[in-house]
Write a structure and sequence with these properties.
By secondary structure, the protein is α/β, with parallel strands linked by helices. Helix content is 26%, strand content 28%. The longest helix has 13 residues, at 225-237.
């Protein structure tokens, strides 16, 4: 908990006088699937950290802008539809999100949110770019349909929910790779951007058992909420 004290000072988390916990914002709107937004919010709320989790978006009480981001320590971009569609919605927020992270904020990107952390197109928060993993020659999944794929998270083999998530072509000396795909390429990582940090994942660490049931997939040993908490902890508290 002591590690959160410096975060409490950022952005005036005590300013409203009601809830002293650091604010974590989760995007919920047309550039994300509601299921993913809700699951990311649940992951952050259940992380064991004293975070105040709120949604931000065009139909939420909080709108996504520089003023809203200034009071937060975390901004999370969940999974959604296509990158082209999402970028058409999120491009107007790119400068605000970059400024938030550059000034010491923390960005979490899940699947589509990982794509949006890239540059072509995206918020340009990575020391490199993203690519469509299913298009790589050795990809375990080769269609955009829901799937369960093999990853190694901190060296531990596991199965995770996957739906056309990104791969990451990044400078290896500027990132901390948390997970790799079956072909050895990065599947989840944390890096610095300005005074802040960025954590991204191609697979869905926030996926619950219900996701697998809805997709008619076997969830045996494939629900790993702890990996999402690892991504959050590493983004908040620093690289090893």
């Amino acid at each position: 908990m002591a590690g959160l004290l410096p975060l409490l000072a950022r952005g005036g988390a005590l300013a409203d006088g009601f809830d002293p916990r650091p604010l974590a914002l989760v995007y919920r709107g047309p550039a994300a699937y509601r299921r993913s937004s809700n699951a990311v919010a649940a992951l952050l709320s259940g992380s064991g950290l004293p975070l105040r989790v709120e949604f931000v978006g065009p139909d939420e009480p909080r709108r996504l802008d520089a003023g809203t981001l200034a009071g937060a320590v975390v901004y999370a971009q969940p999974g959604g539809g296509t990158l082209a569609h999402a970028w058409g919605i999120m491009a107007d927020h790119a400068d605000d999100i970059r400024g938030f992270v550059d000034g010491g904020g923390h960005y979490l990107g899940f699947c589509l949110g990982g794509y949006l952390a890239g540059a072509t197109p995206g918020f340009d928060l990575l020391p490199g770019d993203t690519y469509r993993y299913i298009d790589s020659p050795d990809a375990e999944a080769d269609t955009p349909e829901d799937a369960v794929i093999s990853v190694r998270w901190r060296g531990r083999p596991m199965r995770m929910f996957f739906q056309d998530g990104p791969g990451f072509r990044v400078a290896p000396d500027r990132v901390s790779v948390l997970a790799t795909y079956d072909d050895g390429s990065p599947a989840a990582l944390v890096c610095r951007y300005g005074r802040g940090r960025v954590g991204v994942s191609g697979p869905h660490p926030e996926a619950t058992a219900g996701w697998f049931t809805a997709a008619n997939l076997d969830d045996t040993d494939a629900v790993h909420i702890g990996t999402g908490r690892d991504l959050l902890d590493t983004a908040l508290f620093g690289l090893p």
